[in-house]
DNA sequence: TGAAATGTTGGGGCG
DNA sequence: ACGCCCCAACATTTC
């Protein structure tokens, strides 16, 4: 009568879950444990509540139970294993340093009590050591990394969800006691309208995307006012669907440029994990060390205006408000808004990263850290310092009819298309007709775009010279 | 997964 | 008919 313990991390699913699969294959009983990840930001906590509730329902439907605990895994797991008489603790192998450290400590402690921590590969497409250069090193540039991944090939293997779970009687904390949901104010309305956390929601999103949008993905994904992206990121982050399942699903479709580009986007996530494995302080420390001396500006007021979507640049403000309201932001707009913060405002990328961490449902150490470094120009394979997005041109190019801006910045909605991305260019009559009073109903630009660009080039030239 | 400045070309208006 | 200029369109380079 062996009981196996499964410790869920960001692999909150029953299907294609190697840790769970191994436990069910070898044990007669399985204890299923989730320990609250206290690092989660506000939006992630909201998501976590619903994905845990969904996971628990699926587990209970199969006769099992989900044990919820708070505290340090290094204390909780050995104690629980001992209480249950468990010798096998299964978990996902994570690239995040927080869990790597916990795993390392647990390995020692569990061994000492005659048990073992068995880590299963499941959060990325490839194990962290699998993709190497010919010289045996890690990749620092995306394109050859992606090429190596395509050549390695994703194994055509999906593990079924266990049909039946024989649980154990163990006390669990109550999910509702964790305070994961906002109460006053309840800011989650826009999120409830947009998302269905959990395995079923993830599968539906993937099905829908593959059926309707993936072939046109190559170009449609750039237009934030259209439904051109998969919106799978939070589902993938929490492991409600395995990256392998997403890959195999897409790769099995008739070949098209859209499919190929979507697979490459999955590899950007993979590349971020690859970077996190090499650079454990990816979220805070620039990979390119000369950026430690970058002349950033300290500007609380500008940071706050950016966070609230009050910079006076419509496409930036629309993106920041989409983030605030829905816990997600379209990728094209992420690049624009992030570039604006780091280059036009010269605010440290870490401050943008921290805001995204709190606001994104999918806040992911690897993807968020790597992407902010990419924008700031201090990361691996980063955007060169002179690549400064002009948010006005970007807005006009990728939101030509202003649909996106009008949705998230309603006070500009009545402006004609010509001015929707540049209200400061509109004459007084046009503004009055649209019900806009610049500086009152909508802010004037925080910084002049040309001046901000010039200032950024000057600042970046200092780093370049080092 | 840029933008702006600068350079080049070629069509058409015009004397 | 021809050269000249203008400038849009495209290409290259610079930031």
Short description:
The chain has 466 residues and is mainly α.
Q: Any idea of the CATH class of the largest domain?
A: Mainly Alpha
What is the third-level CATH name, the topology of the largest domain? Answer: DNA Cyclobutane Dipyrimidine Photolyase, subunit A, domain 3
> What is the β-strand count?
5
Structural class call reads: mainly alpha
| CATH homologous superfamily placement of the largest domain | DNA Cyclobutane Dipyrimidine Photolyase, subunit A, domain 3
Terminal Cα separation, in Å?
64 Å
Major sheet: size, sense and barrel closure? 5 strands, parallel
Q: Give me the CATH architecture of the largest domain, please.
A: Orthogonal Bundle
* Average pLDDT rating: 97
Supply the number of structural domains: 3
Radius of gyration: 24 Å
**Portion in helices:** 40-55%
Q: What is the overall shape?
A: globular
Estimated share of beta-strand residues: 5-15%
Which spans of ≥5 residues are poorly predicted at pLDDT below 50? Answer: none
Count the helices. How many?
Answer: 21
């Amino acid at each position: 009568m062996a009981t196996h313990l499964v410790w869920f991390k960001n692999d909150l699913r029953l299907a294609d879950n190697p840790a769970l699969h191994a436990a069910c294959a070898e044990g007669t009983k399985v204890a299923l444990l989730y320990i609250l990840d206290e690092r989660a930001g506000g939006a992630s906590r909201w998501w976590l509540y619903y994905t845990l509730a969904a996971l628990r329902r699926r587990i209970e439907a199969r006769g099992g139970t989900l044990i919820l605990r708070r505290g340090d895994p290094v204390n909780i797991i050995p104690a629980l294993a001992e209480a249950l008489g468990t010798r096998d603790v299964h978990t996902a192998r994570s690239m995040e340093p927080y869990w790597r450290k916990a795993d390392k400590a647990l390995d020692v402690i569990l061994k000492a009590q005659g048990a073992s921590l068995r880590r299963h590969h499941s959060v990325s497409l490839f194990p962290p050591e699998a993709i190497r250069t010919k010289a045996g090193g890690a990749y620092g540039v995306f394109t050859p990394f992606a090429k190596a991944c395509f050549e390695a090939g994703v194994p055509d293997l999906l593990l079924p969800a266990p049909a039946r779970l024989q649980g154990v009687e163990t006390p669990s904390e109550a999910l509702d006691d964790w305070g994961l949901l906002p109460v006053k104010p309840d800011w989650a309305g826009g999120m409830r309208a947009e998302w269905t956390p959990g395995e079923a929601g993830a599968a539906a999103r993937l099905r829908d995307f593959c059926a309707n949008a993936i072939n046109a993905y190559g170009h449609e994904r750039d237009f934030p006012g259209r439904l051109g992206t998969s919106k799978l990121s939070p589902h993938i982050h929490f492991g409600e669907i395995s990256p392998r399942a997403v890959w195999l699903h897409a790769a099995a479709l008739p070949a098209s440029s859209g499919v190929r580009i979507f697979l490459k986007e999955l590899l950007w996530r993979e590349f971020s994990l690859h970077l996190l494995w090499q650079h454990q302080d990816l979220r805070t420390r620039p990979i390119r060390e000369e950026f430690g001396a970058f002349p950033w500006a300290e500007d609380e007021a500008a940071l706050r205006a950016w966070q609230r979507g009050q910079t006076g640049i419509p496409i930036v403000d629309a993106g920041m408000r989409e983030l605030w309201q829905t816990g997600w932001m379209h990728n094209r707009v992420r690049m624009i808004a992030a570039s604006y913060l780091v280059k036009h405002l010269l605010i440290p990328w870490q401050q943008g990263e921290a805001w995204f961490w709190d606001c994104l449902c999918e806040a992911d150490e690897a993807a968020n850290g790597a992407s902010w470094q990419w924008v700031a120009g201090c990361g691996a394979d980063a955007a060169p310092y002179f690549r400064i997005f002009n948010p006005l041109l970007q807005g006009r190019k990728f939101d030509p009819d202003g649909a996106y801006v009008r949705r998230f910045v309603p006070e500009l909605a009545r402006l004609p298309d010509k001015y929707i991305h540049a209200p400061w260019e509109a004459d007084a009559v046009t503004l009055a007709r649209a019900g806009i009073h610049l500086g009152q109903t909508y802010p004037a630009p925080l910084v002049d775009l040309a001046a901000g660009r010039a200032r950024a080039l000057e600042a970046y030239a200092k780093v370049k010279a080092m």
